[in-house]
């Protein structure tokens, strides 16, 4: 047993070493990713349920590593946050998304119905004291109409230091910028929080949408979220809608917008433009 124990220890040690090595490697690679042009934004359409038109997009980060290939946010955001790199990356994401959106609105795609671009914001980024000033400056410099920008915050971002959070959100709102509560329902925020914080949009997390058709608890939960949202006058976007049945349930219970594979995955710029052109022509 003693021998086995030692082997197990060595096994874990090797695993740990590998893991640490990989993290250090990724952190260093991420450090140069912006400079080397390896980051890219994919865009997922946001659809209005009533008209079935694409009315906006959410920008989602992708990393094209020269050797490792395509790296998804789940494999990099945490490293970016812990190393502080997320601040610079987040600034790049915002500028890139605003610039792209202004371009879309100015080109022939102006016939499309897109009027909002959503950008994810990390808690680490939001916590920076100059966050609001930087956002407002970036919006002005890129020429985006402020009300077309929607910043997506999660509950964990707004849960700490409520007074500072409220002040920052109010300043963004006064500048005309919209704020979504992302992944709604997965965190710990109470109704009281929702009432105090000036959100414009609520995004129902994919984990609640998944089983709405088969699970009566989830169905009841989503119904409750939707009626609450209408009291608070939030726009509601359902995330992760994959089937017609989910769409129908949400639509019949007053949900206004959705994202999900039923319409499209997040796609590259060219592909997103094709989706818009297709819609304009049909
Ligand atoms: P999120 O903000 O909740 O984004 C939605 C995620 O759900 C995306 O994963 C999207 O690809 C996926 N998704 C959309 N529709 C469906 C569907 O119908 N079915 C399924 N199964 N999945 C769907 P992605 O792109 O891998 O992003 C994961 C998370 O990484 C995001 O979750 C967000 O929290 C974070 N993230 C992405 N881009 C950024 C960024 O630029 N900055 C920051 N701070 N976080 C980001
Ligand atoms: Ca999001
Ligand atoms: Ca989400
Ligand atoms: Ca999520």
Features:
binds ligand C2E; binds calcium ion
Please provide the ordered H/E string of secondary-structure elements. HEEEHHEHHEHHEHEHHEHEH
Q: Return Rg in Å.
A: 21 Å
Helical percentage: 40-55%
Largest sheet: 8 strands, mixed, barrel
Amino- and carboxy-terminal Cα gap:
71 Å
Poorly predicted runs are none
Instruction: Tell me how many strands there are.
Output: 9
| Average predicted confidence as pLDDT | 93
In short:
The protein is built from 12 helices and 9 strands. It has 282 residues and is of the alpha/beta class. The structure holds ligand C2E and calcium ion (CA) (3 copies).
Task: Please render the helix and strand layout as text.
Elements: H1 2-33, E1 39-48, E2 54-65, E3 69-71, H2 77-83, H3 85-106, E4 116-120, H4 123-127, H5 131-142, E5 149-154, H6 155-158, H7 162-174, E6 178-184, H8 191-196, E7 201-204, H9 206-209, H10 216-232, E8 235-238, H11 244-252, E9 257-258, H12 269-281
Parallel strand pairs: 2-4, 4-5, 5-6, 6-7, 7-8, 8-9
Antiparallel strand pairs: 1-2, 1-9, 2-3
Helix pairs in contact: 2-3, 3-5, 5-7
């Amino acid at each position: 047993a003693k021998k086995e124990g030692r082997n197990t220890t060595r096994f874990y040690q090797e695993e740990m070493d590998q893991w640490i090595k990989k993290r250090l490697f990724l952190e260093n690679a991420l450090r140069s990713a912006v400079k080397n042009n390896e980051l890219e934004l994919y865009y997922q359409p946001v659809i209005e349920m009533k008209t079935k038109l694409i009315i906006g997009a959410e920008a989602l980060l992708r990393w094209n590593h020269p050797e490792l290939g395509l790296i998804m946010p789940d494999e990099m955001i945490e490293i970016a946050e812990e190393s502080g790199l997320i601040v610079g990356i987040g600034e790049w994401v915002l500028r890139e998304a605003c610039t792209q959106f202004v371009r879309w609105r100015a080109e022939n795609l102006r016939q499309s119905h897109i009027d909002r671009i959503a950008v994810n914001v990390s808690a680490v980024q939001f916590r920076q004291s100059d966050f609001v000033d930087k956002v407002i400056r970036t919006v002005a410099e890129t020429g985006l109409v402020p009300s077309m920008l929607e910043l997506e915050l999660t509950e964990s971002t707004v849960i700490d230091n409520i007074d500072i959070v409220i002040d920052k959100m109010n300043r963004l709102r006064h500048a005309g910028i919209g704020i979504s509560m992302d992944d709604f329902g997965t965190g710990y925020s109470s109704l009281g929080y929702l009432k105090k914080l000036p959100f414009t949009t609520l995004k129902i997390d994919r984990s609640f949408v998944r089983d709405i058709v088969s699970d009566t608890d989830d169905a009841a939960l989503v119904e409750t979220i939707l009626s609450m949202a209408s009291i608070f006058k939030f726009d509601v976007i359902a995330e992760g809608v994959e089937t017609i049945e989910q769409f129908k349930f949400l639509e019949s219970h007053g949900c206004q917008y959705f994202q999900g594979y039923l319409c499209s995955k997040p796609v590259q710029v060219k592909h997103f433009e094709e989706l818009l052109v297709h819609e304009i022509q049909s």
